[in-house]
Write a structure and sequence with these properties.
The protein has 251 residues and is an alpha+beta fold. It contains eight helices and eight strands, in the order H-H-H-H-E-E-H-E-H-H-E-E-H-E-E-E. Helices cover 43% and strands 18% of the residues. The strands form two sheets. Strands 1, 2, 3, 4, 5 and 6 form a six-stranded antiparallel beta sheet that branches. It has a two-stranded antiparallel ribbon with strand order 7-8. The relative contact order is 0.13. The mean pLDDT is 89.
């Protein structure tokens, strides 16, 4: 059963901004901000459950669910009625739909609701990988990861990424987006292990660098659809048929 905060958090994936959702509900965006942080520091102790408030939130949630379901139908991607999120397929440069699916403005989902959403993603058997983005304080993230990589052999790509990050910090960029490494969500992967893998990456790499103004934990999901030809056998050089394994597309 979804709580009122759950419904508001899910509706934010469609609304995109607190002002837009607050306008739909008929309250100020400041009040909505407190409701979205129910039970947390700076948030409301409890979202009111009077008849008028319940009606407004449920109406906004129903609109969100309908819009999300229609977008999923148009983009031919799975949709969950029990934890509906607004997801869309990123188009390729030629305008056709690509294999990457984005769910934005997910920072208000509780850890439990985030796992519920990702659980349905894995159960759909339509995706083989997921990466989660956080908007973090770059200097803290840099220091934390620098310590972790101190005694490791770095790859060229890691050195390049470190140089780019260091350059942003020197230019005065305080916060920025960081993605976790892709977690396998394929049909053969363990759902429990996949969910643990996502949370572990967030806990170890992102949590320490959020909390300041402008930062947000897990504010976007990037999902990789299983391509239509993924299961098609491919002839090897020796004449045997094999199935080619694809890496997730670059972001």
């Amino acid at each position: 059963v979804l709580t009122l905060q759950d419904k508001l958090a899910l509706a934010m994936t469609t609304a995109g901004s607190q002002r837009a959702l607050a306008s739909l509900i008929g309250i100020t965006h400041q009040k909505l901000g407190r409701w979205l942080k129910e039970g947390q520091t700076g948030g409301a102790k409890k979202i009111p459950d009077d008849r008028e408030t319940l009606k407004a939130i449920n109406q906004a949630f129903n609109i969100h669910s309908q819009v999300s379901a229609e977008q999923a139908r148009v983009d031919r991607i799975p949709f969950s009625k029990t934890s509906p999120v607004f997801a869309y397929r990123k188009p390729l440069k030629n305008g056709t739909l690509g294999d990457r699916v984005v769910i934005e403005h997910t920072q208000y989902l509780s850890r439990e609701l985030r796992q519920k959403v990702l659980s349905h993603v894995q159960e759909s058997k339509s995706y083989f990988a997921v990466s989660v983005r956080s908007t973090i304080e770059l200097s803290i993230y840099f220091k934390q990861t620098e310590q972790e990589l101190k005694h490791r052999i770095r790859t060229d790509s890691q050195d390049l990424a470190r140089a780019e990050l260091k350059g942003k910090i020197k230019e005065g960029v305080a916060v920025g987006p960081i993605f976790t490494k892709y977690e396998s969500f394929g049909p053969k992967s363990s759902k429990a292990q996949a969910l643990k893998g996502v949370e572990k990456k967030l806990r170890e790499k992102h949590e320490a660098a959020v909390g300041q103004k402008g930062t947000a934990l897990a504010d976007q999901f990037l999902l990789q659809l299983i391509p239509a030809n993924y299961y098609e056998p491919k002839a090897s050089a020796k004449g045997k048929t094999t199935r080619a394994r694809r890496k997730p597309a670059s972001r």
